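Worked problem 6 (solution included).
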Amino acid sequence: MAKIRYKQRIHKNKLSARSLRYAAADQMVRLFPALRERWMFPVDAVPMAEAAVSAAAFDTLVIDAQPPAPIARLVKRPTPLKSVQKVYTFHDATVIGQSGALIQHGKLLAVRPNPNWAVSLRPRNYARRNLQPGVLHYLLMPPVPAIGHVFHWLFDYVTPFMTWLEERTDREPVQPIVNGKLTEFQRRTLDFLVAHYGLLAPVGVSADEAAFAPRIATSVLEPFAPRAMQAPAGLKALAALGRHLSWDKVDTSARRRLYISRNDAKLRRVANEAELGPMLTAHGFESIILKSMPIADQVRLFIEAEAVIAPHGAGLAHIAWMRAGAKVTEFFPAATGPYGAPNNATANFWIISNQQGLDYAAYEAAPQTSRHDLFQIPLDLMALVLKQHFAPL
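Solution. The predicted structure is:
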């Protein structure tokens, strides 16, 4: 019974503490309906397109290039790729601070077919608050577990928001709704958005709050994936955002070469980086770990870079700042071996490269040697890549 009931509610039927908590809470609110309102925990959903009072649509760029072999199995759709960025406006909806989910008249507003309910809903006695009437609120709230994720913040939220701000003709006051606790990347980005577009100061909603908005807008990509697909206006605005984030202290003559290490991460670590180091250094590559860097330094590195080599990971979202023609080389663990294909691998950085005019290449390295995608890049493969794409400095 659980499989039948939840196979369309829990992404890929993952058995985890989160999915078990969702299933248990769902059963509780069905047995005791009073808990639905107390926990803000709906059991029904409605598509956003049906619930919205208005919608604005922005065509994304079209990607007609054929993906390289390691990317082809990740795209899931035939090329040419094209999506539509929709911005829906709703009346009388409540924002859940833990996930950024929207609830209207007791129903979850579904972003996509078969939404991942286990991510959107969590049983909690949320503190209720009413947001200021007379303004249009805009939802910019990643789920709490994804707050620090560079790619999701930049491409699921900020770039679509900038597209809408660049294209809209109605100049009524707009107030972003944001996470109660912000990362440095979020805070600096919001400073730019408020100053550049004349927005009202953002209102923060904490993880234990539920905020009611008389009017609220949010962005949805249709089809839902690949998530990196963006409209031209938002992509063009990234340059100004990058200058702001880097404090306008970029050396425009720099031609840096970066190897982005993930040896501080849990997933997709390269086990033999020490062996790769000498040949990378000989070709002018600096080994960089992004996690401990201030956001200004991270953005500046990529603006100044002429080439980036990296295993697949969220830090590659920063290629959005790179100049047209710069080289991006991405390595994936091979899909063979006892652990199969890597976890959560996507085609997003190939898509960003196409949209930004970057020279992109992708390679499969050795198979994973652990369930956390630990893998090696063979020395002969790295030597071939460097010989084909990069002259020694």
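Discussion: The mean pLDDT is 93.
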